[in-house]
Amino acid sequence: MLETINLTKKYEDGHLAVDHLSFKVEPGEIFCMFGANGAGKTTTINLFLNFIPPTEGTALIEGIDVTKEPLRSKDFVSFVSENVMLYGSFSAYQNLDYFTKLAGKRGLTKADYARALKSVGLQEDAFNTRSRNYSKGMRQKLGLAIAIIKDAPNILLDEPTSGLDPKSGQELLNLLVKMRDQGKSVFMSTHDIFRAKLIADRVGFMKKGRLVMLKTRKELEGEDLTELYIQYMEEREG
Ligand SMILES: Nc1ncnc2c1ncn2[C@@H]1O[C@H](COP(=O)(O)OP(=O)(O)OP(=O)(O)O)[C@@H](O)[C@H]1O
Ligand SMILES: [Mg+2]
């Protein structure tokens, strides 16, 4: 489970990027967070990962306060960033092996890696080539394969479908649904209303660091999500 309680981040320059944010992502749930550029989505993810300290409030991963136990909390989460960091001189296999061992997993075979790489739809001729020349989508897929192999109960994704071709985007979402069905908590920031609508169990809108709208799939039935989003962004100040 992922949870924030009054999570707040004021950057050093005084900018309030996340403002008393409280929400939960239960096991077996996909939470999609929308919001304008600069609304605080990436900051929220960075707070979960303890890349930056909160000014106030708490982020919890499996009930573990990420500022109190940063290392232990990371055992229970996988992160797929918008710009997946890879070792350029390593192949897909080598990156997967490196990051898997870094996450403390041992005893995985090349067949396990191949299975993960196939499941994310990375083309087989890339398995053994250096990741330096991978396209954005290929990097994204490898990042997701790393997350799949880690098999953590929680997964954070920052705009995972941005830059993916339509088929790859769909495949990625199918994988997230599979992870959700395995009981994982999935939190993603996205601008892709059309696709997220199909898979989200809960949808949140962030505006100026605050959660201004939170609805379940059921509550959204019959709603036009794009229309709702525009309404919230235009009309309801604050
Ligand atoms: N290191 C920083 N120092 C000061 N301000 C920052 C810093 N990082 C982000 N911000 C500000 O915090 C706000 C939230 O940024 P954030 O990256 O969380 O937005 P976002 O919702 O992820 O936007 P996008 O959709 O464009 O990715 C923005 O106004 C941004 O300028
Ligand atoms: Mg962002």
Structure characterization notes:
39% of the residues are buried. The protein is globular and about 50 Å long. It contains 9 helices and 10 strands. The model has no long low-confidence stretch (mean pLDDT 93). It has 238 residues and is an alpha/beta fold. It has a 6-stranded mixed β-sheet with strand order 6-7-8-3-9-10, with helices on both faces. The two termini are 28 Å apart. It folds into 2 domains: 1-76 and 153-238, Rossmann fold, CATH 3.40.50.300; 86-151, no CATH class. The site of magnesium ion has 4 residues, from helix 1.
Shape: globular
What separation lies between the terminal Cα atoms? 28 Å
CATH 2nd-level architecture of the largest domain = 3-Layer(aba) Sandwich
Largest sheet: 6 strands, mixed
- H/E series, N to C? EEEHEEHEHHHEHEHEEHH
CATH T-level fold name of the largest domain: Rossmann fold
β content, as a range?
25-35%
Look at the structure and give the mean pLDDT.
93
Number of domains: 2
Helical proportion? Answer: 25-40%
Q: Any idea what the radius of gyration is?
A: 18 Å
Uncertain runs are none
How many runs of DSSP E, i.e. beta strands? Answer: 10
Distinct ligands, ions and cofactors found in the model: adenosine-5'-triphosphate, magnesium ion
Considering the protein shown, what is the CATH homologous superfamily of the largest domain?
Answer: P-loop containing nucleotide triphosphate hydrolases
CATH classification, class level of the largest domain? Alpha Beta
